[in-house]
Amino acid sequence: MKPAVIAVLFCCLPPLAAIAAPWSFDAPLAVTTPPPQTTVFHHLDSSGRRNIAAADGTVAIAWEDDGDGTPRIYLAHKAYEEARFATALQVSGANEAFEPSILALGGKRFAVAWEEDGQVWARLVQIGDAPVPGPLLKISPASGAQASLANDGDGILVVWSEREGRFGRIRALRLGTDGLNLTPGKGCPVDTVPPIDEQLYPSGAVLQGRLVVAWEDRRPRHTIIMAAIETKPASCRFSAPVRISAKPPGRNLPYGAGHGVSRVALDRVGNERLFAAWADKRDFRHGYDIWGSYYQIGEAGFEQNEIVQDDFGGLSKQHHAAVAGHDTGTLLVAWDDEREGNVDVMLSWYEAGGWSDDWPLPGASGPGLQSNPSVTLDSDGNLHAAWVERDDVDGPTRLKYGFGRINRE
Amino acid sequence: MNCRRYAYLIAALLVLPALVLADPPEAYPFVSFDEAMAQSKRDGKLLFVYFGRYGCGYCEKTNREAFVNPEVKERYTSHYVLAYVDAESGRRLRLPSGERVPERELGTRYDALVTPVFTFMTPEGKPVLRLVGVQRIEDLINADDRIQAALAKVRQP
Protein backbone atom coordinates (compact mmCIF):
# COMPACT_ATOMS: atom_id res chain seq x y z
CA MET A 1 0.00 0.00 0.00
CA LYS A 2 1.33 3.42 -0.89
CA PRO A 3 2.44 5.66 1.99
CA ALA A 4 0.01 8.37 0.92
CA VAL A 5 -2.92 5.94 1.20
CA ILE A 6 -1.76 4.82 4.64
CA ALA A 7 -1.47 8.46 5.72
CA VAL A 8 -5.01 9.20 4.54
CA LEU A 9 -6.34 6.14 6.35
CA PHE A 10 -4.48 7.11 9.51
CA CYS A 11 -5.88 10.61 9.46
CA CYS A 12 -9.44 9.63 8.66
CA LEU A 13 -9.87 6.70 11.00
CA PRO A 14 -10.37 7.68 14.64
CA PRO A 15 -8.36 5.66 17.15
CA LEU A 16 -10.11 2.50 18.29
CA ALA A 17 -10.20 3.69 21.90
CA ALA A 18 -11.97 6.88 20.84
CA ILE A 19 -14.71 4.85 19.13
CA ALA A 20 -15.43 3.03 22.35
CA ALA A 21 -15.30 6.03 24.67
CA PRO A 22 -18.63 7.08 26.16
CA TRP A 23 -17.86 10.78 25.63
CA SER A 24 -16.97 13.05 22.71
CA PHE A 25 -14.82 15.97 23.74
CA ASP A 26 -14.93 19.59 22.65
CA ALA A 27 -11.62 21.46 22.30
CA PRO A 28 -10.23 22.29 25.75
CA LEU A 29 -10.71 25.80 27.16
CA ALA A 30 -8.54 28.01 29.34
CA VAL A 31 -10.24 28.53 32.70
CA THR A 32 -8.34 31.70 33.49
CA THR A 33 -5.78 33.76 31.62
CA PRO A 34 -3.03 35.36 33.70
CA PRO A 35 -1.76 38.78 32.64
CA PRO A 36 1.04 38.61 30.05
CA GLN A 37 4.62 38.33 31.32
CA THR A 38 3.53 37.00 34.71
CA THR A 39 4.52 33.66 36.17
CA VAL A 40 1.58 31.99 37.89
CA PHE A 41 1.36 28.56 39.48
CA HIS A 42 -2.14 27.05 39.52
CA HIS A 43 -2.96 24.07 41.74
CA LEU A 44 -5.88 21.64 41.68
CA ASP A 45 -5.06 19.79 44.85
CA SER A 46 -8.15 19.44 47.02
CA SER A 47 -8.36 16.49 49.34
CA GLY A 48 -10.45 13.95 47.41
CA ARG A 49 -9.64 15.88 44.19
CA ARG A 50 -12.96 17.78 44.13
CA ASN A 51 -12.02 20.94 42.27
CA ILE A 52 -14.81 20.87 39.69
CA ALA A 53 -18.58 20.71 40.10
CA ALA A 54 -21.47 20.90 37.64
CA ALA A 55 -25.25 21.19 38.01
CA ASP A 56 -28.20 22.95 36.39
CA GLY A 57 -26.24 23.80 33.28
CA THR A 58 -23.38 25.54 35.10
CA VAL A 59 -19.89 24.22 35.72
CA ALA A 60 -17.57 25.80 38.30
CA ILE A 61 -13.92 25.21 39.09
CA ALA A 62 -12.13 26.15 42.32
CA TRP A 63 -8.34 26.34 42.44
CA GLU A 64 -5.41 28.01 44.16
CA ASP A 65 -2.96 30.28 42.42
CA ASP A 66 -0.37 32.87 43.39
CA GLY A 67 -1.15 35.33 40.61
CA ASP A 68 -1.04 38.32 42.96
CA GLY A 69 1.97 37.00 44.86
CA THR A 70 0.02 35.13 47.54
CA PRO A 71 -1.62 31.72 47.17
CA ARG A 72 -5.38 32.36 47.13
CA ILE A 73 -8.57 30.50 46.22
CA TYR A 74 -10.50 31.44 43.09
CA LEU A 75 -13.68 30.24 41.41
CA ALA A 76 -14.60 30.53 37.75
CA HIS A 77 -17.83 29.36 36.13
CA LYS A 78 -19.59 29.08 32.81
CA ALA A 79 -22.74 27.62 31.31
CA TYR A 80 -22.08 24.26 29.69
CA GLU A 81 -22.50 25.60 26.17
CA GLU A 82 -20.61 28.85 26.67
CA ALA A 83 -17.22 29.16 25.01
CA ARG A 84 -15.42 30.88 27.87
CA PHE A 85 -15.33 31.11 31.63
CA ALA A 86 -16.42 34.24 33.48
CA THR A 87 -13.81 36.33 35.25
CA ALA A 88 -12.54 34.50 38.31
CA LEU A 89 -13.90 35.41 41.74
CA GLN A 90 -11.53 35.44 44.73
CA VAL A 91 -13.16 33.19 47.31
CA SER A 92 -10.58 33.17 50.12
CA GLY A 93 -9.66 36.04 52.43
CA ALA A 94 -6.48 38.01 52.99
CA ASN A 95 -4.13 35.19 54.00
CA GLU A 96 -2.37 32.34 52.23
CA ALA A 97 -4.98 29.78 51.19
CA PHE A 98 -4.71 26.28 49.73
CA GLU A 99 -6.52 23.15 48.53
CA PRO A 100 -10.10 24.24 47.78
CA SER A 101 -12.91 21.70 47.44
CA ILE A 102 -16.08 22.61 45.54
CA LEU A 103 -19.60 21.19 45.52
CA ALA A 104 -22.65 21.96 43.36
CA LEU A 105 -25.83 22.49 45.37
CA GLY A 106 -28.30 23.18 42.58
CA GLY A 107 -30.02 26.49 41.93
CA LYS A 108 -26.64 27.69 40.61
CA ARG A 109 -25.19 27.70 44.13
CA PHE A 110 -21.78 26.23 44.87
CA ALA A 111 -20.07 25.56 48.19
CA VAL A 112 -16.32 25.96 48.54
CA ALA A 113 -14.13 24.89 51.49
CA TRP A 114 -10.39 25.52 51.79
CA GLU A 115 -7.47 25.96 54.16
CA GLU A 116 -6.50 29.50 55.02
CA ASP A 117 -3.88 30.50 57.57
CA GLY A 118 -3.97 27.04 59.11
CA GLN A 119 -7.76 26.83 59.48
CA VAL A 120 -10.59 25.42 57.37
CA TRP A 121 -13.11 27.90 55.97
CA ALA A 122 -16.19 27.57 53.79
CA ARG A 123 -18.65 29.80 51.97
CA LEU A 124 -21.37 29.60 49.33
CA VAL A 125 -21.26 31.32 45.97
CA GLN A 126 -24.40 32.18 44.01
CA ILE A 127 -23.90 32.30 40.26
CA GLY A 128 -25.88 35.08 38.58
CA ASP A 129 -24.92 37.83 36.19
CA ALA A 130 -21.90 38.07 38.46
CA PRO A 131 -21.02 35.50 41.14
CA VAL A 132 -21.98 36.59 44.64
CA PRO A 133 -20.09 35.12 47.63
CA GLY A 134 -21.88 34.42 50.89
CA PRO A 135 -20.49 35.00 54.39
CA LEU A 136 -17.41 33.11 55.52
CA LEU A 137 -17.76 30.30 58.04
CA LYS A 138 -14.83 28.93 60.02
CA ILE A 139 -15.08 25.14 60.06
CA SER A 140 -12.10 23.94 62.09
CA PRO A 141 -12.33 24.48 65.85
CA ALA A 142 -8.62 25.23 66.11
CA SER A 143 -6.21 24.25 63.37
CA GLY A 144 -7.25 22.27 60.32
CA ALA A 145 -6.50 21.57 56.66
CA GLN A 146 -7.27 19.26 53.72
CA ALA A 147 -11.02 19.92 53.50
CA SER A 148 -13.27 17.91 51.21
CA LEU A 149 -16.98 18.47 50.53
CA ALA A 150 -19.76 15.98 49.85
CA ASN A 151 -23.44 16.29 49.02
CA ASP A 152 -25.85 15.40 51.81
CA GLY A 153 -29.31 15.69 50.31
CA ASP A 154 -30.15 19.35 50.69
CA GLY A 155 -27.15 19.91 52.93
CA ILE A 156 -23.40 19.72 52.82
CA LEU A 157 -20.83 17.56 54.55
CA VAL A 158 -17.28 18.69 55.10
CA VAL A 159 -14.49 16.38 56.23
CA TRP A 160 -11.01 17.57 57.08
CA SER A 161 -7.90 16.85 59.13
CA GLU A 162 -7.86 18.76 62.43
CA ARG A 163 -4.60 19.09 64.35
CA GLU A 164 -4.93 17.52 67.76
CA GLY A 165 -1.61 17.64 69.53
CA ARG A 166 1.03 16.05 67.30
CA PHE A 167 -1.35 14.45 64.84
CA GLY A 168 -4.10 15.25 62.39
CA ARG A 169 -7.51 13.70 63.20
CA ILE A 170 -10.30 13.35 60.65
CA ARG A 171 -13.47 15.22 61.55
CA ALA A 172 -16.85 15.55 59.83
CA LEU A 173 -19.37 18.39 60.05
CA ARG A 174 -22.82 18.74 58.52
CA LEU A 175 -23.72 22.18 57.22
CA GLY A 176 -27.15 23.54 56.45
CA THR A 177 -27.82 26.39 54.07
CA ASP A 178 -30.07 29.41 54.35
CA GLY A 179 -29.82 31.47 51.20
CA LEU A 180 -26.13 32.27 51.01
CA ASN A 181 -25.52 31.50 54.69
CA LEU A 182 -23.95 28.28 55.95
CA THR A 183 -25.18 26.98 59.28
CA PRO A 184 -23.11 24.46 61.26
CA GLY A 185 -24.85 21.25 62.27
CA LYS A 186 -23.69 18.05 63.92
CA GLY A 187 -19.95 17.37 63.90
CA CYS A 188 -17.63 14.75 65.33
CA PRO A 189 -14.31 13.00 64.95
CA VAL A 190 -14.74 10.10 62.54
CA ASP A 191 -12.62 7.74 64.66
CA THR A 192 -13.64 7.93 68.33
CA VAL A 193 -10.20 6.75 69.44
CA PRO A 194 -7.69 9.62 69.58
CA PRO A 195 -5.05 9.23 66.87
CA ILE A 196 -1.74 7.59 67.60
CA ASP A 197 -0.33 8.84 64.31
CA GLU A 198 -1.36 11.05 61.41
CA GLN A 199 -4.84 10.91 59.83
CA LEU A 200 -4.71 12.96 56.63
CA TYR A 201 -6.40 13.87 53.32
CA PRO A 202 -9.98 12.63 53.80
CA SER A 203 -12.63 12.17 51.14
CA GLY A 204 -16.32 11.59 51.84
CA ALA A 205 -19.48 10.46 50.04
CA VAL A 206 -23.02 9.90 51.26
CA LEU A 207 -24.87 6.65 50.60
CA GLN A 208 -28.54 6.58 51.61
CA GLY A 209 -27.94 9.31 54.18
CA ARG A 210 -24.85 7.69 55.68
CA LEU A 211 -21.49 9.38 55.33
CA VAL A 212 -18.60 7.16 54.29
CA VAL A 213 -15.18 8.70 54.89
CA ALA A 214 -11.84 7.40 53.64
CA TRP A 215 -8.46 8.86 54.54
CA GLU A 216 -4.71 8.29 54.78
CA ASP A 217 -3.78 6.79 58.12
CA ARG A 218 -0.29 6.21 59.49
CA ARG A 219 -1.17 4.12 62.56
CA PRO A 220 0.67 1.00 61.33
CA ARG A 221 3.81 3.16 60.93
CA HIS A 222 3.32 3.45 57.21
CA THR A 223 0.53 5.03 55.20
CA ILE A 224 -2.60 2.99 54.54
CA ILE A 225 -6.10 3.96 53.40
CA MET A 226 -8.77 3.55 56.06
CA ALA A 227 -12.51 4.18 56.03
CA ALA A 228 -15.41 4.48 58.45
CA ILE A 229 -19.14 4.35 57.77
CA GLU A 230 -21.89 6.19 59.64
CA THR A 231 -23.87 3.56 61.53
CA LYS A 232 -27.16 5.45 61.13
CA PRO A 233 -28.03 8.25 58.69
CA ALA A 234 -26.91 11.70 59.83
CA SER A 235 -25.88 10.33 63.25
CA CYS A 236 -22.22 11.35 63.19
CA ARG A 237 -21.50 8.00 64.78
CA PHE A 238 -19.17 5.82 62.79
CA SER A 239 -18.17 2.21 62.59
CA ALA A 240 -14.70 1.33 63.81
CA PRO A 241 -12.31 2.26 60.98
CA VAL A 242 -11.41 -0.51 58.55
CA ARG A 243 -8.37 -0.77 56.33
CA ILE A 244 -9.12 -0.47 52.60
CA SER A 245 -5.67 -0.65 50.97
CA ALA A 246 -4.63 -4.27 51.24
CA LYS A 247 -1.22 -5.53 52.22
CA PRO A 248 0.31 -7.36 49.25
CA PRO A 249 0.73 -11.06 49.95
CA GLY A 250 4.06 -12.76 50.43
CA ARG A 251 6.17 -9.76 51.38
CA ASN A 252 7.64 -9.55 54.84
CA LEU A 253 10.71 -7.42 54.57
CA PRO A 254 12.99 -7.26 57.59
CA TYR A 255 13.01 -3.47 57.36
CA GLY A 256 10.27 -0.89 57.19
CA ALA A 257 6.63 -1.14 58.09
CA GLY A 258 4.89 -1.55 54.75
CA HIS A 259 4.29 -0.13 51.31
CA GLY A 260 3.07 3.39 50.58
CA VAL A 261 -0.26 4.72 49.40
CA SER A 262 -1.35 8.23 48.68
CA ARG A 263 -4.42 10.48 48.36
CA VAL A 264 -7.72 8.63 48.27
CA ALA A 265 -10.73 9.94 46.32
CA LEU A 266 -14.32 8.70 46.74
CA ASP A 267 -17.53 9.10 44.82
CA ARG A 268 -20.96 7.55 44.86
CA VAL A 269 -21.94 5.17 42.03
CA GLY A 270 -25.68 4.62 41.83
CA ASN A 271 -27.72 4.49 45.01
CA GLU A 272 -25.99 1.66 46.81
CA ARG A 273 -22.29 1.74 46.00
CA LEU A 274 -19.31 3.99 46.03
CA PHE A 275 -15.79 3.67 44.73
CA ALA A 276 -12.51 4.70 46.34
CA ALA A 277 -9.36 5.17 44.23
CA TRP A 278 -5.84 5.98 45.37
CA ALA A 279 -2.17 5.80 44.33
CA ASP A 280 -0.54 2.62 45.62
CA LYS A 281 3.09 1.55 45.66
CA ARG A 282 2.62 -2.17 46.37
CA ASP A 283 4.71 -2.75 43.22
CA PHE A 284 7.51 -0.69 44.72
CA ARG A 285 9.83 -0.91 41.69
CA HIS A 286 7.81 1.37 39.42
CA GLY A 287 6.33 4.04 41.64
CA TYR A 288 2.64 4.36 42.32
CA ASP A 289 -0.15 2.61 40.42
CA ILE A 290 -3.86 3.42 40.57
CA TRP A 291 -5.83 0.99 42.70
CA GLY A 292 -9.38 1.12 44.00
CA SER A 293 -12.16 -0.64 45.82
CA TYR A 294 -15.96 -0.63 45.87
CA TYR A 295 -18.11 -0.25 48.96
CA GLN A 296 -21.68 -1.61 49.00
CA ILE A 297 -24.21 -0.16 51.45
CA GLY A 298 -24.81 -2.48 54.39
CA GLU A 299 -21.37 -4.05 54.26
CA ALA A 300 -18.91 -3.57 57.10
CA GLY A 301 -15.92 -3.12 54.83
CA PHE A 302 -14.80 -2.44 51.29
CA GLU A 303 -14.51 -5.09 48.61
CA GLN A 304 -11.27 -6.62 47.38
CA ASN A 305 -8.76 -4.14 45.92
CA GLU A 306 -8.62 -3.94 42.13
CA ILE A 307 -6.13 -2.27 39.86
CA VAL A 308 -7.74 0.44 37.75
CA GLN A 309 -5.08 1.14 35.14
CA ASP A 310 -4.37 -1.33 32.36
CA ASP A 311 -1.26 -3.49 31.94
CA PHE A 312 0.53 -0.89 29.83
CA GLY A 313 0.73 1.42 32.85
CA GLY A 314 2.64 -1.08 34.94
CA LEU A 315 6.13 0.15 34.13
CA SER A 316 5.41 3.83 34.53
CA LYS A 317 4.30 6.11 37.33
CA GLN A 318 0.77 7.17 38.08
CA HIS A 319 -0.63 9.51 40.69
CA HIS A 320 -3.40 12.04 41.50
CA ALA A 321 -6.38 9.68 41.14
CA ALA A 322 -9.76 11.40 40.78
CA VAL A 323 -13.15 9.62 40.75
CA ALA A 324 -16.52 10.52 39.24
CA GLY A 325 -19.62 8.40 39.67
CA HIS A 326 -23.19 8.79 38.44
CA ASP A 327 -26.68 7.73 39.53
CA THR A 328 -26.90 5.46 36.47
CA GLY A 329 -23.87 3.46 37.58
CA THR A 330 -21.32 5.13 35.30
CA LEU A 331 -17.92 5.28 37.00
CA LEU A 332 -14.62 6.70 35.79
CA VAL A 333 -11.21 7.34 37.28
CA ALA A 334 -8.72 9.90 35.93
CA TRP A 335 -5.07 10.25 36.89
CA ASP A 336 -1.61 11.48 35.78
CA ASP A 337 0.37 8.94 33.80
CA GLU A 338 3.93 8.92 32.45
CA ARG A 339 3.75 5.89 30.16
CA GLU A 340 4.28 7.98 27.03
CA GLY A 341 7.41 9.58 28.46
CA ASN A 342 5.71 12.78 29.52
CA VAL A 343 2.87 13.44 31.94
CA ASP A 344 -0.63 12.96 30.47
CA VAL A 345 -4.08 12.69 31.99
CA MET A 346 -5.51 9.21 31.49
CA LEU A 347 -9.04 7.90 32.00
CA SER A 348 -10.54 4.51 32.57
CA TRP A 349 -14.23 3.75 33.00
CA TYR A 350 -16.05 0.72 34.29
CA GLU A 351 -17.80 -1.29 31.61
CA ALA A 352 -18.97 -4.88 31.29
CA GLY A 353 -17.68 -5.83 34.70
CA GLY A 354 -14.18 -4.46 34.32
CA TRP A 355 -12.05 -1.43 33.63
CA SER A 356 -11.73 -0.13 30.07
CA ASP A 357 -8.39 0.23 28.36
CA ASP A 358 -6.71 3.42 29.52
CA TRP A 359 -7.54 6.38 27.38
CA PRO A 360 -5.67 9.71 27.14
CA LEU A 361 -8.04 12.56 27.89
CA PRO A 362 -8.40 14.59 24.66
CA GLY A 363 -6.55 17.89 25.01
CA ALA A 364 -4.75 16.68 28.14
CA SER A 365 -2.08 14.54 26.53
CA GLY A 366 0.89 15.01 24.24
CA PRO A 367 3.85 17.41 24.52
CA GLY A 368 4.30 19.23 27.83
CA LEU A 369 2.87 18.13 31.15
CA GLN A 370 -0.84 17.67 31.84
CA SER A 371 -1.59 16.68 35.39
CA ASN A 372 -3.70 16.93 38.53
CA PRO A 373 -7.10 16.09 37.01
CA SER A 374 -10.40 16.70 38.71
CA VAL A 375 -13.52 15.18 37.13
CA THR A 376 -17.29 15.19 37.60
CA LEU A 377 -20.34 13.89 35.75
CA ASP A 378 -23.39 16.13 35.43
CA SER A 379 -26.96 14.83 35.68
CA ASP A 380 -26.99 13.90 31.97
CA GLY A 381 -23.73 11.97 32.28
CA ASN A 382 -21.57 14.57 30.49
CA LEU A 383 -18.00 14.56 31.74
CA HIS A 384 -16.42 17.78 32.98
CA ALA A 385 -12.68 17.73 33.61
CA ALA A 386 -10.13 20.26 34.81
CA TRP A 387 -6.38 19.85 34.84
CA VAL A 388 -3.12 21.78 35.09
CA GLU A 389 -0.92 22.20 32.03
CA ARG A 390 2.70 23.38 31.83
CA ASP A 391 5.49 23.26 29.27
CA ASP A 392 8.14 22.06 31.70
CA VAL A 393 8.23 20.78 35.22
CA ASP A 394 9.35 24.05 36.79
CA GLY A 395 7.56 26.41 34.45
CA PRO A 396 4.40 28.45 34.89
CA THR A 397 1.06 26.68 34.64
CA ARG A 398 -2.19 27.02 32.74
CA LEU A 399 -5.55 25.84 34.03
CA LYS A 400 -7.57 23.90 31.46
CA TYR A 401 -11.11 22.54 31.15
CA GLY A 402 -12.53 19.81 28.94
CA PHE A 403 -16.19 18.99 28.22
CA GLY A 404 -17.03 15.44 27.22
CA ARG A 405 -20.49 15.14 25.73
CA ILE A 406 -22.13 11.80 26.53
CA ASN A 407 -22.55 9.70 23.42
CA ARG A 408 -26.19 8.70 22.91
CA GLU A 409 -26.77 5.27 21.37
CA MET B 1 10.14 3.14 90.76
CA ASN B 2 6.49 2.13 90.93
CA CYS B 3 4.54 -0.02 88.45
CA ARG B 4 3.15 2.98 86.56
CA ARG B 5 6.66 4.31 85.90
CA TYR B 6 7.73 0.90 84.60
CA ALA B 7 4.68 0.87 82.32
CA TYR B 8 5.62 4.31 80.92
CA LEU B 9 9.20 3.19 80.38
CA ILE B 10 8.14 0.01 78.56
CA ALA B 11 5.67 1.96 76.45
CA ALA B 12 8.37 4.48 75.55
CA LEU B 13 10.79 1.72 74.58
CA LEU B 14 8.13 0.06 72.42
CA VAL B 15 7.34 3.28 70.63
CA LEU B 16 10.96 4.32 70.06
CA PRO B 17 11.85 1.90 67.22
CA ALA B 18 8.68 2.85 65.40
CA LEU B 19 9.58 6.53 65.53
CA VAL B 20 12.79 5.98 63.59
CA LEU B 21 11.19 3.93 60.81
CA ALA B 22 10.55 6.70 58.38
CA ASP B 23 12.83 9.40 59.58
CA PRO B 24 16.21 10.47 58.31
CA PRO B 25 19.15 8.81 60.04
CA GLU B 26 19.77 9.79 63.64
CA ALA B 27 22.34 12.40 64.58
CA TYR B 28 22.42 13.91 61.09
CA PRO B 29 21.34 17.56 60.71
CA PHE B 30 18.63 16.97 58.08
CA VAL B 31 16.30 19.94 57.60
CA SER B 32 13.35 20.67 55.29
CA PHE B 33 14.01 21.17 51.58
CA ASP B 34 13.43 24.91 51.53
CA GLU B 35 15.48 25.48 54.68
CA ALA B 36 18.25 23.47 53.10
CA MET B 37 18.02 25.45 49.85
CA ALA B 38 18.47 28.71 51.74
CA GLN B 39 21.33 27.29 53.80
CA SER B 40 22.97 25.85 50.69
CA LYS B 41 22.97 29.24 48.97
CA ARG B 42 24.26 30.90 52.13
CA ASP B 43 27.07 28.39 52.73
CA GLY B 44 27.95 27.68 49.09
CA LYS B 45 27.59 23.93 49.64
CA LEU B 46 25.82 21.34 47.53
CA LEU B 47 22.54 19.89 48.72
CA PHE B 48 22.13 16.22 49.55
CA VAL B 49 18.40 15.50 49.39
CA TYR B 50 17.07 12.29 50.93
CA PHE B 51 13.66 11.40 49.46
CA GLY B 52 12.16 8.91 51.91
CA ARG B 53 8.72 7.68 52.83
CA TYR B 54 7.03 6.90 56.11
CA GLY B 55 7.59 3.19 56.79
CA CYS B 56 9.98 2.75 53.82
CA GLY B 57 11.92 -0.47 54.31
CA TYR B 58 14.86 0.33 52.07
CA CYS B 59 15.22 3.73 53.73
CA GLU B 60 15.46 2.05 57.11
CA LYS B 61 17.97 -0.49 55.78
CA THR B 62 20.16 2.31 54.40
CA ASN B 63 19.86 4.23 57.67
CA ARG B 64 20.88 1.25 59.77
CA GLU B 65 23.57 -0.20 57.55
CA ALA B 66 25.19 2.78 55.82
CA PHE B 67 24.41 6.06 57.52
CA VAL B 68 25.56 4.68 60.89
CA ASN B 69 29.12 4.57 59.55
CA PRO B 70 31.25 7.34 61.15
CA GLU B 71 33.10 8.11 57.91
CA VAL B 72 29.84 8.51 55.99
CA LYS B 73 28.53 10.76 58.73
CA GLU B 74 31.67 12.89 58.81
CA ARG B 75 31.73 13.30 55.02
CA TYR B 76 28.08 14.05 54.50
CA THR B 77 27.63 16.42 57.43
CA SER B 78 30.72 18.41 56.48
CA HIS B 79 30.39 18.44 52.67
CA TYR B 80 26.67 18.99 52.15
CA VAL B 81 23.57 20.70 53.40
CA LEU B 82 21.22 17.82 54.19
CA ALA B 83 17.51 17.92 53.28
CA TYR B 84 14.93 15.23 54.04
CA VAL B 85 11.71 14.96 52.04
CA ASP B 86 8.88 12.62 53.03
CA ALA B 87 7.55 11.80 49.56
CA GLU B 88 4.01 11.24 50.87
CA SER B 89 3.81 14.25 53.17
CA GLY B 90 1.47 17.20 52.80
CA ARG B 91 3.91 19.62 54.45
CA ARG B 92 4.29 22.68 52.27
CA LEU B 93 7.52 24.12 51.01
CA ARG B 94 8.71 26.57 48.39
CA LEU B 95 10.50 25.41 45.25
CA PRO B 96 13.40 27.32 43.68
CA SER B 97 10.90 28.65 41.11
CA GLY B 98 8.86 30.23 43.91
CA GLU B 99 6.04 27.69 43.58
CA ARG B 100 4.50 26.44 46.84
CA VAL B 101 3.92 22.69 46.84
CA PRO B 102 3.51 19.86 49.35
CA GLU B 103 6.53 17.59 49.90
CA ARG B 104 4.73 14.86 47.97
CA GLU B 105 4.72 17.01 44.85
CA LEU B 106 8.43 17.68 45.27
CA GLY B 107 8.93 13.91 45.11
CA THR B 108 7.06 13.76 41.80
CA ARG B 109 9.00 16.72 40.35
CA TYR B 110 12.34 15.12 41.18
CA ASP B 111 11.19 11.69 40.04
CA ALA B 112 11.42 10.21 43.53
CA LEU B 113 8.42 7.92 43.52
CA VAL B 114 10.57 4.91 44.35
CA THR B 115 12.20 5.44 47.74
CA PRO B 116 14.81 6.00 48.90
CA VAL B 117 16.29 8.33 46.33
CA PHE B 118 19.31 10.43 47.24
CA THR B 119 19.94 13.43 45.01
CA PHE B 120 22.93 15.73 45.05
CA MET B 121 21.82 19.18 43.91
CA THR B 122 23.30 22.58 43.25
CA PRO B 123 22.15 25.39 45.56
CA GLU B 124 19.67 26.28 42.78
CA GLY B 125 18.09 22.85 42.99
CA LYS B 126 19.59 21.34 39.83
CA PRO B 127 20.28 17.60 40.27
CA VAL B 128 23.87 16.53 39.59
CA LEU B 129 23.84 12.89 40.78
CA ARG B 130 21.10 10.48 41.85
CA LEU B 131 21.38 7.32 43.89
CA VAL B 132 18.27 5.13 43.75
CA GLY B 133 17.39 2.44 46.28
CA VAL B 134 19.38 0.88 49.09
CA GLN B 135 22.88 2.30 49.48
CA ARG B 136 25.84 0.61 51.16
CA ILE B 137 28.64 2.39 53.00
CA GLU B 138 30.89 2.10 49.97
CA ASP B 139 28.16 3.47 47.67
CA LEU B 140 27.83 6.63 49.74
CA ILE B 141 31.58 7.08 50.07
CA ASN B 142 32.07 6.50 46.36
CA ALA B 143 29.37 9.03 45.49
CA ASP B 144 30.98 11.58 47.78
CA ASP B 145 34.37 10.93 46.17
CA ARG B 146 32.88 11.52 42.70
CA ILE B 147 31.17 14.73 43.75
CA GLN B 148 34.23 16.08 45.54
CA ALA B 149 36.48 15.22 42.59
CA ALA B 150 34.11 17.03 40.23
CA LEU B 151 34.01 20.04 42.54
CA ALA B 152 37.82 20.09 42.74
CA LYS B 153 38.00 20.20 38.94
CA VAL B 154 35.51 23.05 38.80
CA ARG B 155 37.45 24.99 41.45
CA GLN B 156 40.82 24.60 39.70
CA PRO B 157 42.06 27.93 38.35
Please explain how this structure is put together.
The complex is a heterodimer of chains A (409) and B (157). Chain A is mostly beta strands. Chain A has one domain: Neuraminidase, CATH 2.120.10. Chain A is 4% helix and 50% strand. Chain A has helices spanning 3-12, 16-20; strands at 23-25, 29-30, 42-43, 52-55, 58-65, 72-79, 89-90, 97-106, 109-116, 119-126, 132-133, 137-138, 144-152, 155-164, 167-178, 181-189, 199-207, 210-217, 224-229, 242-243, 261-269, 273-280, 289-296, 306-307, 318-325, 331-337, 344-351, 354-355, 359-360, 369-377, 383-390, 397-406. In chain A, β5 and β6 (72-79) form a beta hairpin. The radius of gyration of chain A is 21 Å and the shape is globular. With 157 residues, chain B is an alpha+beta fold. Chain B has one domain: 3-Layer(aba) Sandwich (Glutaredoxin). Chain B is built from 6 helices and 6 strands, in the order ααβααβββαββα. In chain B, the strands form 2 sheets. Chain B has a 4-stranded mixed β-sheet with strand order 2-1-5-6. In chain B, β5 and β6 form a beta hairpin. Chain B starts with a helix and ends with a helix. The A-B interface holds A 39, 41, 43, 45, 66, 71, 96, 98, 145-146, 200-201, 216, 218, 220-223, 253-263, 281, 284-288, 317, 319, 393-395 and B 18, 21-22, 53-61, 64, 87-88, 90, 92, 95-102, 104-105, 108-109, 113-115.
What's this, in brief?
The complex is a heterodimer of chains A (409) and B (157). Chain A has helices spanning 3-12, 16-20; strands at residues 23-25, 29-30, 42-43, 52-55, 58-65, 72-79, 89-90, 97-106, 109-116, 119-126, 132-133, 137-138, 144-152, 155-164, 167-178, 181-189, 199-207, 210-217, 224-229, 242-243, 261-269, 273-280, 289-296, 306-307, 318-325, 331-337, 344-351, 354-355, 359-360, 369-377, 383-390, 397-406.
